[in-house]
Write a structure and sequence with these properties.
By secondary structure, the protein is mainly α. It has one domain. Helices cover about 75% and strands about 0% of the residues. It has 22 helices and 2 strands. It has a two-stranded antiparallel sheet. Strand 1 and strand 2 form a beta hairpin. Helix 1 packs across helix 17, helix 5 runs antiparallel to helix 14 and helix 13 packs across helix 14. The protein starts with a helix and ends with a helix. About 50% of the residues are buried.
Length: about 500
């Protein structure tokens, strides 16, 4: 193993691969930071480039794009409150408020460092325990995936700050929008109203861009219509040292980061879920386990740590089933599978014996790109913050144009541009009505997963719902789901009772 690792490091530190990894990391960060561009898009665009490269060089480039794209999304999520990719949705929950309080540099610094740590932990898991984790993932079938989706959907209650009814309404609306298009399994067209453009449903990125980016542009434009020279926010870099946070704050977040990394790895190895879910789940767990859950959403670094650690930990997690079983863990690794095929390499159990040097070259490229990501984002920290000095009347149109270009680039359809405008108006309506947006995203992302696996599970058990309870893993998750709902209802009732008692005591 040590000799293979040495050969992998030697391969990566050649001029060609070192340059490609640096280039891929920087380009990936840019793709992640621009709303509408993703690491999946970056890897897909550069896939043809790997034709003329060797297997080690080509796959190292794709790996660097993956790392940079996943981490780069935190830049727009924090500074503009617009998630660059689905993996950074939860980063906006506390990253945006921190920026508004003048602590944008701290939020960026925390996000960068824990993005780095999350990736490092996932790489360690990939190197040392990949085969074992992959075998566990193989035990998950439709019953288990359905139960996980239901358990995740029950977490909507946690995100429904203020009014539980409004939170549930938001989640239900998101679930409803996810059912538009051709139904899974039987391929029946639903809610398309004769529009063929709706057959494939709504793209998750167009929903995110509309719900967060366009609605934010409308909201900010409304607030500053009489303040032409206003800027998005002000962050002073004069007193900022290093990454902008203290060693005490770093140590205080280590357990939160480690727990979030484990969540990211665990979700990453389950094919089809990915960082878009892991960052929200990790955020919710961090909120539930916190000593001050009421502060989440108002600007605490705990939320940024949880989200950024988990989504970057998904990188190593998603590569585990790809390298050990030949099964891509998410959309990016599905494209990367094509990169292996281009060079006539079949990922799977035999890859570690037949292509040992290549495997450890990939590991070395992951480590190198992670270090480069940390360095590039550290030195770019002051450049990123300068975006806030741009007047709103200049910055908002640029953001709007980038959103439109990003939406159009998904499928080269004008329809996607109309889609982001539609969800922008919906998001703006949510803001005006005090309806939380995160439950909508959870419902939209997990809706298809729950429905598809419900129908597949029923097919396997001949229409018997007991199949979901009999299977030990799915049964355990469904029990946890029920317990989660009852626990939150109990807490809500207890809070109401305490409030009533306080009112009675004041009146007395």
């Amino acid at each position: 193993m040590l000799s293979l690792f040495q050969q992998g490091i030697e391969a990566v530190f050649t001029f060609q691969i070192f340059g490609l990894v640096f280039f891929g990391t920087v380009v990936g960060i840019i793709f992640g930071a621009v709303p509408g561009l993703t690491s999946t898009m970056a890897v897909a665009l550069f896939l043809p480039v790997t034709y003329s490269l060797g297997a080690g060089a080509g796959i190292s480039l794709l790996v660097a794009l993956f790392v940079g794209g996943t981490s780069g999304a935190l830049i727009s999520a924090i500074l503009l409150k617009i998630p660059g990719t689905p993996s950074s949705v939860a980063t906006t929950f506390d990253g945006g408020p921190l920026m508004e309080k003048g602590e944008g540099a701290k939020a960026l610094g925390v996000g960068i460092v824990f993005s780095f740590l999350g990736t490092v932990v996932s790489i360690i898991a990939l190197i040392f325990i990949a085969p074992t984790l992959a075998k566990i993932a193989l035990r998950f079938g439709p019953h288990e995936y359905f139960a996980i989706a239901i358990f995740s959907l029950t977490l909507i209650i946690t995100l429904a700050s203020g009014s539980m009814v409004k939170g549930l309404l938001s989640g239900v609306i998101g679930f409803a929008f996810s059912t538009v298009g051709i139904a899974p399994v039987d391929a029946i067209t639903r809610f398309t109203f004769g529009q063929t453009q709706l057959n494939s449903g709504f793209e998750i990125l167009t929903v995110l861009i509309g719900l967060f980016a366009i609605s934010e542009v409308i909201k900010v434009a409304e607030n500053v219509k009489h303040e032409r020279a206003a800027t998005i926010g002000k962050v002073s870099m004069k007193s900022i040292k290093g990454f902008g946070f203290s060693m005490q704050e770093f140590v205080g977040q280590l357990w939160n980061g480690f727990r979030s990394a484990l969540i990211g790895i665990g979700i990453g190895i389950l094919p089809g879920i990915g960082a878009g879910t892991s960052n929200i789940v990790s955020y919710i767990v961090a909120k539930n386990r916190s000593k001050y859950p009421e502060k989440f959403g108002t600007g605490v670094i705990d939320g940024v740590v949880a989200s950024e650690t988990a989504n970057n930990a998904c990188i190593g997690g998603a590569l585990i089933p790809l390298l050990t079983l030949g099964i891509p863990g998410d959309a990016v690794t599905a494209v990367m599978l094509g990169g292996f095929m281009i060079h006539g390499i079949q990922p799977g159990p035999l890859l570690f014996t037949t292509q040992g040097v290549l495997v450890y070259t990939i590991f070395a490229a992951l480590i190198l790109s992670t270090i480069m990501m940390l360095i590039c984002e550290f030195y770019g920290l002051r450049i990123f913050v300068k975006l806030l000095a741009v007047p709103k009347h200049i910055l908002l149109p640029i953001i709007l144009v980038l959103c439109v270009v990003g939406a159009f680039g998904l499928g080269n359809r004008i329809f996607d541009i109309w889609t982001i405008l539609l969800f922008g108006l919906i998001g703006y309506g949510f803001v005006k009505g005090g309806i939380p947006q995160p439950p909508f995203i959870i419902g939209f992302i997990l809706g298809p997963m729950a429905e598809t696996n419900l129908r597949r599970g029923l097919q396997l058990s001949d229409g018997d719902f007991m199949g979901f309870l009999i299977e030990p893993i799915s049964g355990a998750f469904l029990m946890l789901s029920a317990a989660s709902v009852f626990w939150h209802i109990f807490q809500a009732q207890r809070a109401k009772s305490a409030k009533r008692r306080a009112v009675v005591e004041l009146e007395a």
